[in-house]
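pasting input
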Amino acid sequence: MGFLITTLIFIVAGVIASLLARICCNKGPSANLFHLTLVITATVCCWMMWAIVYLAQMKPLIVPILSEGE
Amino acid sequence: MGEGGCCPSMELFRSEPMQLVQLIIPIESAHLSISYLGELGLVQFKDLNAEKSPFQRTYATQIKRCGEMARKLRFFKEQMTKAGLTPSTRPLTRVDIDLDNLETKLGELETELIEINANSDKLQRTYSELLEYKLVLRKAGEFFYSAQSSATAQKREIDARQMGEVSIDSPLLLEQEMSIDPSKQVKLGYVSGLVPRENSMAFERILFRATRGNVFLRQAVIEEPVMDPMSGEKVEKNVFVVFYSGERAKAKILKICEAFGANRYPFTEDVGKQGQMLTEVSGKISELKTTIDVGLMHRDNLLKAISYQFEQWSLLARKEKSIYHTLNMLSFDVTKKCLVAEGWSPVFAINQIQDALKRATFDSNSQVGSIFQVLHTKESPPTYFRTNKFTSAFQEIVDAYGVAKYLEANPGVYTIITFPFLFAVMFGDWGHGICLLLATLFFIIREKKLSTQKLGDITEMTFGGRYVIMMMALFSIYTGLIYNEFFSVPFELFGRSAYACRDPSCSDSTTVGLIKVRGTYPFGVDPAWYGTRSELPFLNSLKMKMSILIGVAQMNLGIVLSYFNAKFYGSNLNIWYQFVPQIIFLNSLFGYLSLLIIVKWCTGSQADLYHVMIYMFLSPTDDLGENQLFAGQKTLQMVLLLLALVAVPWMLLPKPFLLKKQHQERHQGQSYALLQSTDDSFEVEAHHDSHGHEEFEFSEVFVHQLIHTIEFVLGAVSNTASYLRLWALSLAHSELSSVFYEKVLLLAWGFNNIIILVVGIIVFICATVGVLLVMETLSAFLHALRLHWVEFQNKFYEGDGYKFNPFSFALLSDEDD
C-alpha cells in the first residue's frame, strides 16, 4: 500500500465520520459545523501522525542492526 | 462586526451574543418573577445598590430570617447525624410549602426537639445517678457485711480466749482495748459514694491530711466504667466509704468530695433496710429505663419525619435566601411601586425571560405586567458558552488560563481534539491507552449514579474530566498503534516487516544490519526496529522531526485563528500588519524547516538540515554543495530570508502610526459634530465621557507593539523548541515502559520459578499503574496543557473576558455545601 492509497483511506474515513456525525446528531447548522470541525481536526491530526511515520521510513538512511547475542 | 459569508456561525467558536436588559417589575410580583428567573437561570443581575451595606438593603430582614432557618436546619442535621439518620434522598410527596409556614414549622419542630432533648438529658442523669447509687449500695453493703462478720468472728475469738487461760502471746493492749467503757464510745459517721479512679489516690491522701488521719477510708474498684451523671461520659470509678467522727470532720469531707467530683449517696447500716433500698432503686431504674426508651423512640420518630422532608426544606430555604439576595440588588423606581432590575442575558433567552415574567404576573394576580427592555451599553458583556457534559471539561481547560473576551474565537473548539492528540503523542502505547479507557469508561457508565454522590477531591477531579480522559485514551490507543507499542512490545499487526536479513545465514545482521526488502510497513513504526542497536537513533530522529512538524502546524493554526478574530472584529489593521507578517515570518523560517524535513524523507538525501538552516542565516549566498536537496534551493532560501527580515519591521512599524492616524481622524470628526449640534451636547458629552479615558499615547502604543513584535519573533524560535517536549516525553514513556517490561517481567520469567514470576508480575503491574498510568499521565497532561496555553493560545487568544454568572437555582444547590 502506497502513501496515496492510505491517504485516500484516511480521507474516506474522515468523510464517513463526518457523514455519521451529520446523520446521528443533527442538531441544527451551527452544531453540525462544530461536529464537522471536530471530525476534520481529528482526521488531519491522525493522518499527519501516520504520514510523518510513513514518510520517515520510506527511504531509510539507517537500517535496523540487531543487537549482539540475538 | 458579524460573521460574514456563507457558513452559519459555529457552535462554541464564539460565545453567545449577550445583551443588557432592564426589567421593571411591580413589587407584588417581584418575588415570583425572580423565582421563575432563577429556575430559568439565564440572567446575571447587576448589583444596583452596590453602595449600600447589607443591612441597609430592602430585604435584609428576610435574609436574616432565611439565615435563622438555615441555622435550624443545620441543628436538625446535627441531631440526625447524632441519631445515625441520613436525609432520605428520594423526594417523597412534594408538598408545596411557603416560607412563612416553613418558618413556623421549623420553629415548632426546633422547640419540640430541644424540649425532648432537655427532658431526656434530665432523665438520663437521674438514671445514671440511680445506677451509681445501686453500685454504692452493693459495694458498701459488702464492706459492712465483711466488717461485721470479721467483727463477730473477732468477738467470738476474744470471748473464747477470755473463757480460757490468758496466753502469753495475747496482745497486751487487747484487754484494755476491749474494756473501753461503752458509754464513752463515740458514734462514727460515714459518707459513701463514688469517686473517679484517677482521682482516688489524691482523694485518699487529701482526706487523710485534712482530718489528720482521723478517718477510715475503704475503696472498692468497679470493673466496668460508669456513666457520669454530670458529663454523660463513661468514667472508671471507685466506690468509697469514709468513716469519721465529729461534725467538723464531716464538713471537711463533704467539701473534699465536692472538689473531687465524688458523688455521695446515702446509705444505711441496717441490712434489712439495705435490701429494701436496693429493690426500690432497681425498680426505679427499670421504670426510668422504659421512660427513656419511649422518649428516645419519640425523638427518633420526630427526626425521621424531619429527614423525609429535610432536603426539600433546605433547598427551599436556600432558594428563598438567594431570591431575597437577588431582590436586594434591585433598585426602587421613583414611585416606589416597582423594582428595577438590570442584568445580562443571552440574546436567545429573550422569549424565555418574557414568558417567565408573564407567568409570574399571572400567577401573582398582579394588575400590572412587568416591562422588559433592552439597554444599549458600551460595557463589555460577559462571556457565555453553552457547553454540554462533553465539551464543558475542555472549556474548563481553556477557562483555567483565562476567560475568553466577549465573542472572541474560542480555542476550546480545537482543544477538544488537539489536547488529547498532543497528550497521546507523549503517551503513545495502546496497552496503556486501553487501561486508561477502561478506567474512564467505568466513570462514564456509572455517570448518573456518581454525579449525585459526593466524591473525594481527586476522584471528583477525575470524574469531572472523564470525557477528556476518554479522548486522551482513544488517541493514545491510536498513537500507540502508530508507535507500535503494547506495553512496549511491538506486534506485526499490519502486514509483515519491511526488513529482512541480507542472506540466508543472517551473518552480518549484527554488524551491517538488515535490508529493506519490501515496501514500507504500511501503518506505524516497523516492528523490526524494536530491540535493535539502531532503534534509539532512528526513533529519536523520527520523534524530534515529528515534534517540529506538529508544532509548526499547531502554531499556524493559532495564527490563522488570529485572522478570524481580526476579521470578526473588522480590524483590517490586524489582518495586514499583524496576521500577514506573522504567518510569513513563521513559515519562512520554520515552515521552510518542515518542508526540508519532508523533502529529505521523500528523497532519502543525506543533507544535514542543521547546516542548511544555520548557513541560511550566516552566509545565504554560499553554495549549498552536498546539502542541496532540490534545484533552486539557494534562491528560495534567499527569498525566504528576505521575507522574514522584512516581516519584522512590517509587524513593528505601520500599526502604531496607523492607529495614531485613525485616532486623529476620529477626534476631528467628533469636534466637528460638537460644533454643529448644540442641542445634543448632553449626548455628545456622555459619548465623550465614555471615550474620555481613551487618551492616545503614541509612545505607549509603540512600546506595546515593540514588545509584541519581540515576543513573537523570539517566541517563534522558543515555541518551536518548546514543542520538542513531545519528543522528550514520548521517549521517556517508551523507555520507562520497556525497562519495566524487560527488567521486571522478562527477568522474572527467566527464573522459571512460579513464585518469582508471580512477584515479578505484581511488581510489573504496580509499576505500570503507579508510574506509567498515573505519573506519566499526569506529566503528559501538564505538558499538553502548557503547549496549549502558551504555544498555541498566545498566537491569538486574549482571554481577558469575564464569565457569565447567572442567577440560577441549579447552580445554587451544589455551591452551598
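fyi The interface with chain B takes residues 1-2, 6, 29-31, 33-34, 37-38, 41-42, 45-46, 48-50, 52-68, 70 of chain A (CB under 8 Å).
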